[in-house]
UniProtKB/TrEMBL annotation:
Name of the protein described by the UniProt record: MOB3C kinase
Binding-site positions, Zn(2+): C83, C88, H165, H170
InterPro entries assigned to the protein according to its UniProt record, in alphabetical order: MOB_kinase_act_fam, MOB_kinase_act_sf
Pfam family for this entry, one: Mob1_phocein
Organism phylogeny: Eukaryota, Metazoa, Chordata, Craniata, Vertebrata
GO terms assigned for molecular function: kinase activity
Keywords: Kinase, Metal-binding, Transferase, Zinc
Organism: Podargus strigoides
PANTHER family noted in UniProt: MPS ONE BINDER KINASE ACTIVATOR-LIKE MOB
Length: 217
């Protein structure tokens, strides 16, 4: 039963957006393989996120931002049938935290959206950024822009809000699906990574200071 439930979590049909892939033969692809090998080896997650000797920090961050986008996208895709306009009319993390959407095009001021609307806008926005060669260059020798880490901080901050919403509003569904261990591991990996490189303001982390059952620190 557990295997069946976990299979649901990895069901490609549930993916919220197409997965972003790294091109074989590129430095980014090799870094991605190295990161995945470390993750699967059972090493301490705090050690897994550390920058490998001799590697570029921007390449390392880029690989993880894309990977976290894929993983969190998949988690939300699995949960999306429980997250509806009716059940979640506001994108929030409990009664204390509400997240409004703002971008440089349609929503120029912070705007109240339902959780499903917010998630759609968020995934579209991240997809646009990671496919932008001026921000996430894939060609050898093309440097990252000066604001690269600033952009990644914004992406990761907003992805963190997906965890906040899923944990606070849909944790029962995660447990019922048998996906608790997978989601917790993904969150721990994400959390240790952002802490290792100070990529999210600590105030943003407050909604999940007290984790649900299953979080082991």
């Amino acid at each position: 039963m557990m295997a069946l439930c976990l299979k649901q979590v990895f069901n490609k049909d549930k993916t919220f957006r197409p997965r972003k892939k790294f091109e074989p033969g590129t430095q980014r692809f090799e870094l991605y393989k190295k990161a995945q090998a470390s993750l699967k080896s059972g090493l301490d997650l705090k050690a897994v996120v550390q920058l490998p000797p001799g590697e570029s920090i921007n390449d390392w961050i880029a690989v993880h931002v894309v990977d976290f986008f894929n993983r969190i996208n998949l988690i939300y895709g699995t949960m999306s049938e429980y997250c509806t306009e009716k059940s979640c009319p506001i994108m929030s993390g409990g009664l204390k935290y509400e997240y409004r959407w703002q971008d440089d095009s349609k929503y120029k001021k912070p705007t109240k959206l339902s959780a499903p609307q917010y998630m759609c806008m968020l995934m579209d926005w991240i997809e646009m950024l990671i496919n932008n060669e001026d921000i996430f260059p894939t060609r050898i020798g093309v440097p990252f822009p000066k604001q690269f880490q600033q952009v990644c901080t914004k992406i990761l901050t907003r992805l963190f809000r997906v965890f906040v919403h899923v944990y606070i509003h849909h944790f029962d569904s995660i447990i019922n699906m048998g996906a608790e261990a997978h989601v917790n591991t993904c969150y721990k990996h994400f959390y240790y990574f952002i802490r290792e490189f100070s990529l999210i303001d600590h105030r943003e982390l407050e909604p999940l200071v007290r984790m649900p059952q299953g979080w082991e620190g």
